[in-house]
């Protein structure tokens, strides 16, 4: 009887000791650009193991995510693939003041279907329309999704857009554009370098000059709807060494503060 009572007391004390940790565990809702898919999968696992918090990550084109936030979606952290959509949310008063920072940089590349496509000299002299033949150029939405915006800007700067504008197969996000090329549905596509590195069924045949498009910057920020410590923990983690290593493994350039 005494032994049984002692075991019960021990169990109660053990449970009570665990309560503070459980009480501090939080669910953090994150909206992030689709191009962050692989890196955030690794970061999610490591952050949850280190903190006990639960990350709920939604990935899509930055434009679609930003519009959902504007329409009232309950989101804690937003990571955009370009500054423009974060600017729009800030203008609407939807980003907590002082929490925004530039997290990553990237580049855009021309990819081809298959593992052994010939390289392409990207510049004003290339004939992209001839390269496409009867096929299409896969891109994310060129007027709203960052990867598509950057790609269109580069093609315009190089004098290529007019010749291919009517032959662009637009996808909802950059990962969908990557999938078009990987599946052989489009012979060429424009995606981020990091997306191309995540797919072994495509070949990077050329990199677009950095001065042919606006700088590719990924800002992150805490949204101004609710405030709890776990949000700050996650933003700090994104700037820490473990997240830096995960981003760099996927080919991102981490912005130094």
From TrEMBL:
Keywords: Metal-binding, Molybdenum, Signal. Molybdate binds at residues 35, 62, 147, 174, 192. Pfam families: SBP_bac_11. SUPFAM superfamilies: Periplasmic binding protein-like II. Gene3D superfamilies: Periplasmic binding protein-like II (3.40.190.10). Residues 1-25 form the signal peptide. InterPro entries: ModA, ModA/WtpA. One of its GO terms (biological process) is molybdate ion transport. One of its GO terms (molecular function) is molybdate ion binding. The keyword Signal applies. One of its GO terms (cellular component) is outer membrane-bounded periplasmic space. PANTHER family: MOLYBDATE-BINDING PERIPLASMIC PROTEIN, MOLYBDATE-BINDING PROTEIN MODA. The complex is composed of two ATP-binding proteins (ModC), two transmembrane proteins (ModB) and a solute-binding protein (ModA). Belongs to the bacterial solute-binding protein ModA family. This is Molybdate ABC transporter substrate-binding protein. It comes from Ponticoccus litoralis. The gene is modA.
């Amino acid at each position: 009887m005494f032994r049984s009572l002692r075991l019960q007391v021990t169990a109660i004390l053990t449970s009570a000791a665990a309560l503070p940790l459980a009480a501090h565990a939080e669910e953090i809702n994150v909206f992030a650009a689709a191009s962050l898919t692989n890196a955030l999968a690794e970061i999610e696992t490591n952050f949850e193991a280190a903190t006990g918090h639960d990350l709920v990550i939604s990935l899509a084109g930055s434009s679609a995510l930003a519009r959902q936030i504007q329409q009232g979606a309950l989101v804690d952290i937003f990571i955009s693939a370009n500054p423009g959509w974060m600017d729009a949310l800030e203008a609407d008063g939807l980003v907590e003041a002082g929490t925004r920072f530039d997290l990553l940089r990237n580049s855009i590349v021309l990819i081809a279907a298959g593992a052994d496509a010939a390289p392409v000299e990207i510049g004003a002299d290339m004939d992209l329309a001839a390269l496409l033949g009867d096929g299409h150029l896969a891109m994310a939405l060129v007027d709203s999704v960052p990867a598509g915006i950057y790609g269109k800007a580069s093609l315009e700067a190089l004098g290529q857009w007019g010749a291919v504008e009517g032959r662009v197969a637009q996808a909802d996000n950059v990962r969908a554009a990557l999938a078009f090329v990987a599946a052989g549905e489009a012979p060429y596509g424009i995606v981020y370098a990091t997306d191309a590195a995540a797919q072994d069924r495509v070949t990077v045949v050329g990199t677009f000059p950095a001065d042919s498009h606006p700088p590719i910057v990924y800002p992150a920020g805490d949204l101004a709807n609710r405030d709890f410590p776990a949000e700050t923990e996650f933003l700090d983690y994104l700037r820490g060494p473990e997240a830096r290593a995960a981003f760099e493994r996927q080919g991102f350039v981490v912005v130094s503060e």
